[in-house]
Automatic annotation (TrEMBL):
Chief location: membrane
Compositionally biased intervals (Low complexity): 483-504, 596-607
All copies of domain TraD/TraG TraM recognition site, residue ranges: 398-517
CDD domains given in the database record: TrwB_TraG_TraD_VirD4
Protein name per its UniProtKB record: TraD/TraG TraM recognition site domain-containing protein
Keywords noted in UniProt: Cell membrane, Membrane, Transmembrane, Transmembrane helix
Species assigned in the record: Spirosoma pollinicola
Compositionally biased residues, Basic and acidic residues: 563-582
Length: 614
């Protein structure tokens, strides 16, 4: 019995020494060995949160592991005893224990621990694959990606390598359709090209800088804007991105601009469907005189109501000029040959999750000109998401990296409504404050509430730090304090010592911990997965990116010719609908009175041309 207690005490002391050694190695910056040792005793961040429980004490777990390994080594050495030379029994036991420790550590490192028990998960539908991420604590699984993913992390946190790229790769493996916004084209686009290279899903690429690697697209095609409400929302999306501050105030100038673009789109859709593109609509406004344009739009009864408020201001030339100057200055940003080329074709289907033609669309921005192309990209994504959010379609995914650089109307409602249509939403931001600046606090909270799987990387913003700390909540921590006292009476003195315990609430995840997270480290919550919460190091997976080869040719002359042709289409349209002006007819002079009876032969007769004068 004494020997047993001696072994247990020795192992507990060994646990203390191992814990101290691991802390020393971390101070030296050697993190691999401590991480492996912690995984061997299944010591996770969640365990650390509850370290007031005796079993969660680090030294106790290492002590128990030492007892188990020593015991297993003794058993194996006893089995080998008959073939062991005399005097080598202790050596065999020692080296056997070391070998067992190495084998066990290898199984843990490869994600195959020997003694880990996992509950059998509930069976999932065939069209609801699990998404998994490799971490130093094992595999982190998401059982239901359709509940949405929110990723928050500033530059250098590793959100692309650790999270977004694995999501792209697994989406391709599951043959997900969808759309991706690549703010730094072609960084993520090349990942899509590699991941979907052998997939049955057709990939499309749209960008405005390298036209040899861009398909042409028309988000206001007549088959897409089937009623005036769609045209109105397209106009609102365009102008909200051109002037976001004004869109928040909804001032009269922005509303007028939206009404004019709505009317132009709907007029072209009804009367000239072959010209129903954003370049034609914007050129119609820019190239046409205000009064002539209003007269043209008013010839369509459905459009007349949209521009009625503008038409009523025709009597005030100053007001009308101000309206058109504002609208034309907005649209002048889009008046380039490159934009006209991309937005005047119709090569990309917007029914991306259609079972008959599954597709994946990548829309790329230019890091040097993000605000120039944001209106067009937002319009494309807004149109695509509406078409995707329909029941009975293929599973699909919407991935928005640096999402606050876009404004998509009512996007905060999409994750909740699209979930039942098997559409997953991945919304990535640098910081929550950036998100609130674009959407506003109320809509930001609504969007966060609809994205149930959340990942938070390093941040220095106090508001973001406080949010994550609050989400993790508090825990009761037991503190032990000692006090001593000394008293003397009648020439003698005595001393006393007292120990007291107190329980205080402390943050489970302090703000300092979030601020000090390293690249690839994230804290967060999983709605349906292998764990409910985590703070761990994600392991970057090998990239599948391949360069996107040019798949079309377009010369500068072709771009300019297309630009000129659109302008000429609009001018000819206006000429065809403008009545030629006529000179004002003078008032017809009265005819001279004719005397009764026959006239004298020498009386001058009225000329036959008199009645047709003028």
């Amino acid at each position: 019995m004494f020997t047993l207690f001696f072994i247990i005490g020795t192992c507990i002391l060994l646990g203390y020494l191992i814990a101290i050694s691991l802390g020393f190695l971390r101070q030296l910056g050697i993190n691999f060995i401590p991480d492996l040792a912690l995984r061997m005793i299944f010591y996770t961040r969640k365990t650390h949160f509850n370290n007031h429980v005796l079993w969660n004490k680090l030294w106790l777990r290492f002590g128990v592991l030492a007892i188990v390994l020593i015991f297993c080594g003794l058993v194996i050495s006893f089995i080998l005893n008959p073939i062991t030379p005399r005097g080598y029994h202790s050596s065999v036991w020692f080296y056997t224990t070391i070998l067992l420790t190495g084998v066990y550590g290898y199984w843990i490192h490869t994600g195959k621990p020997l003694f880990r028990w996992q509950a059998e998960p509930e069976p999932l539908p065939d069209d609801q694959p699990r998404f998994s991420f490799m971490t130093v604590d094992g595999v982190l699984e998401l059982y239901n990606i359709f509940r949405g993913i929110f990723i928050c992390g500033g530059p250098g946190t590793g959100k692309s390598k650790s999270l977004i790229e694995p999501i792209i790769q697994q989406s391709a493996a599951a043959n997900f359709t969808g759309i991706l916004y690549d703010r730094k084209f072609p960084t993520l686009a090349e990942e899509v090209a590699g991941a979907y290279g052998s997939s049955s899903v057709t990939t499309f690429y749209v960008n405005f800088t390298d036209l040899t690697r861009s398909h042409r697209i028309n988000p206001v095609s007549p088959r897409l804007i089937t009623n005036a409400s769609y045209a109105r929302e397209a106009a609102m999306t365009t102008f909200s991105n051109l002037d976001y501050k004004s869109s928040l105030k909804r001032d009269i100038w922005l509303q007028t601009a939206e009404a004019l673009l709505t009317g132009s789109l709907w007029f072209l859709r009804n009367n000239y469907p072959q010209f129903c593109t954003l370049p034609h609509a914007s050129s119609l406004i820019i190239e046409t005189q205000p009064k002539a344009l209003l007269e043209l739009l008013s010839t369509d009864e459905e459009v007349r109501g949209s521009v009625a408020a503008i038409t009523s201001s025709q009597d005030s030339e100053k007001t009308l000029a101000s309206i058109f100057t504002t609208v034309q200055s907005y649209l002048a940003v889009l008046n380039t040959p490159e934009i006209f080329w991309v937005m005047s074709g119709d090569e990309v289907p917007f029914d991306l999750n259609n079972p008959e033609k599954p597709s994946f669309l990548v829309v790329g921005n230019d890091a040097d000109l993000p605000t120039t192309y944001s209106p067009l990209i937002s319009l494309i994504i807004a149109t695509a998401t509406k078409r995707m959010n329909k029941p009975g379609r293929l599973p699909s995914i919407i991935i928005l990296d640096e999402a606050p650089t876009l404004f998509i109307p009512n996007f905060h409602e999409l994750p909740a409504t699209a979930r039942s249509s098997k559409v997953a939403t991945v919304y990535a931001v640098q910081d929550i404050s950036q998100m609130e600046g674009q959407l506003g606090p109320q809509q930001s909270e609504m969007l966060l509430g609809n994205l149930s799987n959340q990942f938070y990387g390093r941040s220095t913003n106090p508001k973001t730090l406080q949010r994550v700390t609050t989400l993790f909540g508090k825990q009761d921590v037991e503190y032990l304090s000692y006090s001593s006292g000394q008293s003397s009476s009648s020439g003698s003195s005595s001393s006393s010592q007292n120990a007291s315990t107190s329980i205080q609430q402390r943050d489970r995840l302090p703000m300092q911990t979030i601020r000090d997270l390293q690249t690839g480290q994230f804290a967060g919550f999983i709605a349906e997965g292998s764990t409910n919460e985590f703070v761990t190091q994600f392991m970057a997976q090998p990239s599948k990116a391949v360069p996107i080869k040019p798949f079309t040719t377009v010369s500068d002359e072709e771009k300019r010719a297309n630009f000129r042709q659109i302008k000429e289409d609009v001018r000819q349209l206006v000429r065809d609908n403008t009545k030629p002006s006529k000179p004002d007819s003078p008032t017809e002079p009265p005819k001279p009175d004719q005397p009764d009876g026959p006239q004298r032969p020498d009386s001058p007769q009225p000329s036959d041309d008199w009645e047709h004068y003028g």
